[in-house]
Structures are given as structure tokens and as C-alpha cells.
Amino acid sequence: MARGPADGYNLLLAEVGSVSIAPAAFSKLPYGAAKEFVGVAELAYADFVLAVPANLPYRTLDDMVKANKGKTDPLKFATFGAGTPGHFGAAEFGDQAGVKVEPVHFRSTGDAISAIMSAQVSGAWISTAVAHAQIKGGKMRALAITATKRSPLLPVLPTTTEAGMPKLRFSAWLGVLAPSATPAALVDALNKRLVELVQLPEVTQKLVDAGFSVTGTSTADTDRMLKAEAARWGAIVDSTEFKGD
After folding, report:
1. What is the pLDDT of residues 107-149, one digit of tens each?
2. Which residues have C-beta within 8 Å of that of residue 180, sequence separation ≥ 6?
3. Residue 72: enclosing H or E segment and its boundaries?
4. What CA–CA distance (Å, rounded) separates 21 from 229?
């Protein structure tokens, strides 16, 4: 996409992993997100829940932290692969909670969720969009959500702020990017139409039902978000000293 025509038709439905995290985690990417893309619009984002096996005794985030503080054996957290939000979210949780966390990387979302439900791992940070069905079905238990307010899909689940960890905040954004050479007038026209579409009641409802919060931001706000997310995730990646290549 970065090397395609800058004609307003060549667009990327982008997400946090490939644009905000990968440039910090992988030194040999065939693209440079900040230089080669321009933000058209952020469409939505999904917060993350800490999901644990239903048979574990933890009922709250504090239960998990208190039970594992000072232990030499780490909590094993499933991830959907090295370099993903769940990977670095687990590291961020460990640092803030003062507990040892070891990521266990799986090749697919299904494998990671199966490992949680079968108690092969202690838990995982999973986006609300992915986890809410299994949580509602009692196959996993959620301890907290990294959101500013409670999710309408999981209204009894406390936020990380309510659970005593107000700095533990991260989410997975979803947006549209274009090649950086795309004319500003085209980017503005695309932004206007995308924001109109995402704010249609039927579109908003589908996104909310799937576990997303709808944004629909201006191009300027989208660019600010991209810069802020790159800096935030870059700092977390650096703190883990992770290198994917």
C-alpha cells in the first residue's frame, strides 16, 4: 500500500500492531509507518480485558497481584504472538503490579484462548472485541478492563482505575491510512465520508456490539493519535528490550 498510487483509492485499514508497535519491535520492516503513511481517520478502538481461567481463585485484579507478589515463579500470560499488544500489555502489567510475568506466544487467537480456558496459562490481556463472548459464556473470567469507563458488553467489570491501577491503560485502535503523497484535499474528503459512515446508527451499533468504541476523528486528531501511540508503545517495547529480528 505504501508503494501504491496516492490517488485516494489506495487505502489501508490499519491497526495498532502493524503501525504503532511493529516499527519499535522490528528493525527490518519493509515500510516506515511514520514516513510513508498519512492518517485519514481513526474509526474505533477496543480496550483490553484481563481474562483468566474460570477455575482460578482470582476474583479481582488485586487478588491476582497479591497472590503473586514476591513469587519467583512468573505468571504465564498467553499472547497472540510476539510483538502484539497482548505481549507488551502483559509486560506493562507486570511492571506496574510488581509481579513477574512471562509471555507465552501462540500462533493464533484460537490457540491462545484455548490455553486460557484449559488453564495452561494464568491469563492474557485480550481485546474486548475478541473476549466478551467467552467471558459472558463463563468459559473465562475477566478481572478488569483497560478503559476510562465500563464496557456496555461487560457492565459489571471494573476498569483498571477502579481496580487500583489507574496508569494501566492501553487499547487497540482501528483506522484508515493513505500513502503520504495523497493530496490533502483527497484525504480531507475521505475523512469526511468515513466519519459520516462510521457515525451512522446502524454502523455504530454493529461496532459497539462487536466490542469497539466508535471515534471517527479528524485528520489532525488522527495524526496526533498516531504520534502518541507510536511514542507510548515504543516506550513499552524499549522497556522490555524486545527485538523481533
Report:
1. 888 899 999 999 999 999 999 888 888 999 999 999 999 999 9
2. 6, 35, 36, 37, 38
3. none
4. 8
pLDDT, mean over the chain: 92
CA-to-CA dists, residue 147 to 99, 162, 169, 215, angstroms: 22, 10, 7, 14
Query: Residue 33: its pLDDT value, please?
Result: 66
d(CA 63, CA 70): 14
Nearest to 178 by CA among 223, 212, 211: 223
Buried b (16+ CB within 10 A) or exposed e, 229-241: bbebbeebbeebe
Residues shown for the chain: 245
Backbone angles phi, psi at 32, to 5 degrees: -120, 100
**Average pLDDT of 201-217?**
94
Can you tell me the mean pLDDT for 62-72? Answer: 94
- Using alpha carbons, list the distances in angstroms from residue 195 to 41, 161, 184, 203, 232: 7, 30, 16, 11, 25
Say how far apart CA 173 and CA 16 lie, in whole Å: 6
Rounded Cα distance, 74 and 76, in Å: 6
Collapse the DSSP code of 20 into the 3-class scheme (helix H, G, I; strand E, B; otherwise coil) and give the result. helix
Half-sphere exposure of 35 (CA within 13 A, CB side): 6
